[in-house]
Amino acid sequence: MPTSAPPRNRFERRRAETRQALVRAARQILAETGDTSASIQAIAERADVGFGSFYNHFESKTELFDAAVTDALEEFGQAIDERVEGIEDPAELVAVGFRLTARMADSHPELMRILRDRGLAHIHAESGLSPRALRDLEIGIATGRFTCTNPTTALSALGGTLLSLVALRLARPDLDGDEAASDLAEMVLRMLGVPADDAREVTRRALPDLT
């Protein structure tokens, strides 16, 4: 899971561990049932922390579940980041993001269920994959790789299509996820202004290992 600067002393370490245990419990609930009506007592028991500890970290369940979604999205962004290092072509970055996301339905199912159920409200969030994708879109527009002119609206289209891919992979595990992801990535690149032949070639390049 995403990490921040290491706690400086034992108290801070224990405090950070308790907070992360609560976030992890909330993530599990979101992935399993999506039911945010679970009681604070049930969440604390799942996290194996005292009931009173909850209010040392969060003012409400809403705040906790928001933190859980942010944590999941940031883990998702970091997972993609680690595997696209060294790729400079904005078109390939978009394509690889789609194709790795499809594979993560198998390798990171909890993460993908949260993305499917909660991702739409976070397409323009300041954490997770969104700021990374917006950066790549801006570079692609600035360099002429993409012919669209508004990176924000392009991000809406890209994000919505990516979430549809996640929903498809989770609903239809029998489908060829790699083929579906490549096809959708190709459509998105063409929408962004990449020529058809180029878009197809980019979406069929060797893929970084997900392990």
Walk me through the topology.
Elements: H1 10-32, H2 40-47, H3 61-84, H4 90-107, H5 109-118, H6 129-143, H7 151-171, H8 177-192, H9 196-202
Helix pairs in contact: 1-2, 1-3, 1-5, 3-5, 4-5, 4-6, 4-7, 4-8, 5-7, 6-7, 7-8, 8-9
Written account of the structure:
It is a single chain. This protein has 211 residues and is mostly helical. Helices cover 67% and strands 0% of the residues. It has 9 helices and no strands. Helix 8 (177-192) packs antiparallel against helix 9. It is elongated, with a radius of gyration of 19 Å. The two termini are 15 Å apart. It comes from Streptomyces lutosisoli. Keywords: DNA-binding, Transcription, Transcription regulation. This is TetR/AcrR family transcriptional regulator. Residues 16-76 form the HTH tetR-type domain. It holds the Pfam family TetR_C_40.
Strand proportion: under 5%
Q: Structural class, from secondary structure content? A: mainly alpha
Instruction: Give the averaged pLDDT, no decimals.
Output: 92
Give the overall form: elongated
> Helix and strand succession?
HHHHHHHHH
Euclidean distance between termini CA atoms:
15 Å
Cα Rg: 19 Å
Contiguous low-pLDDT stretches (5 residues minimum) are none
The helix tally amounts to 9
Largest sheet: none
Bin the helical content.
55-70%
Total number of β-strand segments? 0
Give short descriptive properties of this protein.
single chain; 211 residues; mainly alpha; elongated
Brief summary:
This protein has 211 residues and is mainly α.
